[in-house]
Amino acid sequence: MTADRVQRRIIAVGSGKGGVGKSTLSANLAVALARSGRKVGLVDADIYGPSQPRLLATEGRRPESEGKQLIPVQSPFGVPMLSMGHLVQPGQAIAWRGPMAGNALGQLIDAQWGDAELLVVDLPPGTGDLQLTMLQKYKPAGAVIVSTPQDLALMDATRAIGLFEQGQVPLLGLVENMAGYICPHCGEQSDPFGHGGAEAAARERGIAFLGRVPLDIAIRRQSDAGDPPAAGTGPLADAYAAIARAVLAALDAVG
Predict the structure, then answer these.
(1) Are 29 and 175 in contact (CB under 8 A)?
(2) CA 103 to chain centroid
(3) Separation of CA 55 from chain center
(4) N or C: which terminus of the chain has fewer CB atoms within 10 Å of its end residue's CB?
(5) What digits encode the pLDDT tens for the residues 44-95?
(6) Tens digits of per-residue pLDDT, 179-202?
(7) What is the pTM of this model?
(8) How large is the C-alpha radius of gyration of the chain?
(9) Residues 140, 10: contact at Cβ < 8 Å?
(10) Burial 222-242, CB ≥16 within 10 A → b, else e
C-alpha cells in the first residue's frame, strides 16, 4: 500500500540516433541520482539492443515475479533495474514486431518498483513505435536528450526533441556527450567530434543545457566492466553528479 502511494515520475532519456552514448549516460545518471539521495529505478527500454545489464553489472541475473508483475533486479549501485537482457540469453536476437515490443516495455515499466520515486527510462534511439508507446501510455514527467557535438548527431537530436514536443513531454534539457578528448600521453585537448554544438543547439531551441561529458577511455573501460564512473570519485563522477543536479532542478521546475 505504501508503494502504491509513491508519486513516481518517469525521466525518459532519448536520442535521435544510436552511438551517442545514451545508454551509458542513462546508467550513470541513475547512479548519480541515487547517490544524491533519490530513490531511483532504471528501465532499459531498448528492447532489441539491451545494454544496461552489462553497464550495471547484473548480467546473468533473472528477475523474479509476483503474480503478473516482475520484481526488479538489484544492481550493486543502489539502483533496481529491469531489461530484456535479464529475460533472454546473452546475444539472443529479439525479432519481435512493434506490438510485442510494446507489451514487453509495459512489463518492465509496470513492475514492482517499491519506493522508487524516479524511473530513468533508457529509450531506444530514434522516433518509432516504442517511443510513441512511452509518450502516449506512460506520460514521462520530462525528457533528457543526449547528443554528441557534431552537426549530424545534432540534426538527429532535433528530431527527438520534436517528438517529445509533439507528445507534450517537458524537455528537461540536452546533454553533450563525448565532448573533448584529453590525450593521456601529452595532455593536449582535442575535439574529434567538435565542441559546444549541443549547448548552442539547446540555446537556439530555448531548452536547458544540462552539461557535458568528455570522451574518455576510462568511461569505455569502466562501462565494459560494469563499474559506472558515477559510482566513484574524480572528474567523471563530478560531471555526472552535476548533470543529475541539473536534471533534478529542471524536473522540479516543471512540477
Answers:
(1) no
(2) 20
(3) 11
(4) N
(5) 998 888 999 999 999 999 999 998 899 999 999 999 999 998 987 766 666 6
(6) 877 677 776 666 666 666 677 778
(7) 0.90
(8) 17
(9) yes
(10) bbeebbbbbbeeeebbebbbe
